[in-house]
Please model this.
Amino acid sequence: MIRSQVFSGVARLLKYSRGTPLIRGKSSKATTTSSLDPQQRDGGSEKPGGVEEAAEQPQQQLPAREPLVKNFFVGAVDKELLAYPEVIAREDMAQLQNALLPLKNYFSEPKGTEETAQNLKQLGLYGLNVPTDYDGRGYGWSASLMASEPDSTATSVGLGLQAHRVVVDLLREVGTPQQQQRYLLALGTGQLIATEAIYEYTPPEDDYFSTQATFTPESRSWVLNGEKAYVVCAPGERQLFLVLAQTQQPNVSGTLGRGTTIFLVDSQQAGVRLGEQHATFGCRETQMRRVHFDNVQLSEEQVVGLPHDGNRYSEQLVRASRLRSSLVGLSLAKRLLNELTQYSVDTTQCGVHIKDLELTRVHLSRAMCSVYAMESMLYLTAGLLDEFQGQDVTLESAITKYYTLKQLYAIASQNLGVVGPKSLHSGQASELGLRDAAQLYTQGESIDTLSMFIALTGLQHAGQAMNSGVRKSRNPLFHPGHIFGKFLETSGIENPKTKMHLSEHVHPTLEAAAQCIEQSVARLQMSVELMFTRHGNAVVERQSEMQRLAEISTTIYAMWASVARASRSYCIGLPLADHELLTASAVCSQGRDTVLTLCKEIFGGNFVNNDNNLVRLSNQLTKSKGYFAVHPLTFNF
Amino acid sequence: MLRRAQCLLRMHSSTGRQSLCAAQHVPAALHRHYSADEANRDEKQNPNAKRAGTGGSKSLPAVRNVFATAQDKTKDTYLTMVEIFGERDVHRRNHVEFIYAALKHMPDFGVENDLEVYKALINVMPKGKFIPTNLFQAEFMHYPKQQQCIIDLLEQMEDFGVMPDYEMEAMLLNVFGNKGHPLRKYWRMMYWMPKFKNLSPWPLPNPVPDDTLEIAKLAVERMCTVDLRSKINVFETKELKDAVDETWIVSGMSPEQSKLLREHSRQKALYIEGPFHIWIRNRRINYFTLRADADAEFLAQLDERQLDEDDVSNIEVPFFGRPPPRRHNQLGKLRSVHQQDDGTIFAICATGTSTKDSLLSWIRLLEANGNPSIGEVPVLFRFTSTVPAKSEEIEGPTSVPATSSDSPSRSRKEDEPSVS
Model:
């Protein structure tokens, strides 16, 4: 029954069923490494302790599949995932649409700032993803993302709500039944508003956090000390902070025993103090503050997951926060695009409609493609989470955030070029949009770290699969056969040979687009292999090449998601689906060129692609502590 | 062909001359600062050197060496003497000898770095007389003695790093014409010297300040460039209650070094070693290091040979905005530039007196300024460093202090007036 609900349209059209046990990608390189992956182990183990995925009707999840984007790094694709997931059942969707109506109405009308908090509570926005057992709505990932679309159109409001939901997500996944009992009810009604307190203003030189917690075995309690920054606060409300603190395992000394622990801290506990408010660049209606913890006494029940093992749960934490912050970015990007379109329709200069200028048209369409790709990625990732049990979407969620924020910022700054000086006039919509975009761009982890995370995660996965091949390639004289085999390969970076047959899984119109994806995946795999062969495990130090890898994998995932979505839309005949096909084709053509350029740069090596020059320059830069060239008009004699 | 033969001849003669010049200039430069009695010795050698330098002719016209007998050795007197020579008679007899004499005495007047003075000397030459009128004259070095004299002048400029300017080109053009050898020399100089002028990675202000404290600061600053985070502190021993010497201490230390010092075992001694030398242009500064023996255990731990670079199966992924791991950083430890194979260097300093007492003050000032752990570690003075011995081998025994002595501070005071 569930199967037929889950699969309609495309799935049926393509005549295959996901019920069959996992079919492996064709590449032989994809060895079974995922069982070693800690994240997946969690996925399995969290179930007994946590509640079942509590949708309105408890859905049964399919067994997990191989991770999608991680496998791109080894050149394997899971073609079945080209069918865009339909995880919300038909009847549920109708109910959801109805439930969303009041929210949409509320957020579409302009309003004053006062009594917002009260309204948000009444609208039930705090309980979207709280299980039904605790009087929440019990939406899954996709449904709760959809339901939070209206509130994320108000970026400042959305930011606070998303932080709340991230904590709820984490509690739902790894919280003990006692913790869920204790917090979820209050969290669902909004009596208690949760928020993350992870990042610090000045992180220590050689540790994760300077916030420390120590365990007292006699009283079986923890003492928390430190200070967190950039904490999204709800003024005047009782709050629950999710705090990551550095802890030391009692019987292991030195760095080995160093770990992080996740705590839930109530704002009403003794020693918790709200600090100064950050004067932020954008999202000014959100209050971001420092929070001080002075000798806060915490019981053992306030530890989320296992103590000292916070890094393991961080994976779930960052996954949720990346997905949810992407939604805020997506809504902002949509709004910016709509405003700009409206502006170019309305404006005429020297008798020419701005909308008819080719430059504006290209710019608008680029933005359209980006927004389309963001949205497809977001709901594809959420769909994977909902559909498969314990699916590994670490990379997918990171990529979604990376792509969304980068493109959002690009759109916001491109607007400046179209609108001109007026766009920065104080109070203008585009000015506020740019500010918010910049604020989101820096919220939480920095975008560079995120790109390194993407590349490293991919390389970690690929390294496990490719290890033996890499060892052979790096020691050619010990393995002559392997090397001769390499010489005889005819596939090259310009014309990779692929046998993935992706086009069989999408609408025929998208055959060319599917071809682009195939080639890009093959190029990514070649680049990864080359990087491993060249640098061995020193590859982690080649950050500028890793940045390219992150860019490549991001582009491929954007292409993949767009094609999957467009294909589904066209097959079931959604409105304007033909233009969706066009959008997906545009995303793919652009993406193929981007990937090709980046892969060629990786193949060229640091002497060809200019990296070497830049790295050398930086030596002098740091030595001179900045710009070092003398004035161009200086005399020497 | 002819030109090449000419050039070869000239090269041989000029290299011979050059070496002589070098032999007499370099010690002169040193002696001026560091030893008074050797300058006298130099004076005695001068006549011979001069004779050799000007071509070994025995029947030189008697010229009174006004430069040797001048009382007031300043730039003004120097220029006045050149002016008097120019005005003395219309023939300017013996001007070549005069220029050679003037060149030799430049360091005594402290004008060896002054372009204006060199120009004044060139100006002594008559204009137009030495310009060749045909090709043969030009190739056979018209007025060789005069041309060689000016070439030697240019050579001396080059040795002292004085860069000519365009006015000098015009003067040489007026004296020797555009085929003259001095002009060719000038053009070569103007090709290379600007390129070398700013090549030093540790450029010094020009002129270098004369104050020893300032020079010491420059020296310590330059040595501290190995670590970009280094901070230079200037302490006064007055700050301490019972310091005997009242002097300054220029101390260089980076946060990295402070950290290493904090983590240094309390059982292992620290050594103050020195004095070592660093030359700032022509001034020597003595400096001392605070160091400990190398942490062999730690260094062995970092041995790269233990790493399997081919193994790509466990790449770590960091969370929360931390920089990615380095390959050698699996334990979260990195070898800093201060941890050398032969020891770990915690700080360097130069003091005004270079005495044991001032170094003691340095340690106590370091302790008071953010390094409390020094107080808990034994600090030993070790003036028997291997480095001075090595430099003695290289430089010869003259200016290097005794490598080991019972009362190092006193003996150093005696043979190193340069520091204070």
In short: DSSP finds 20 helices and ten strands in chain A. Confidence is low (pLDDT under 50) at residues 1-58 of chain A. The first strand of chain A starts at residue 192 and ends at 197. The two ends of chain A are 89 Å apart (CA to CA).
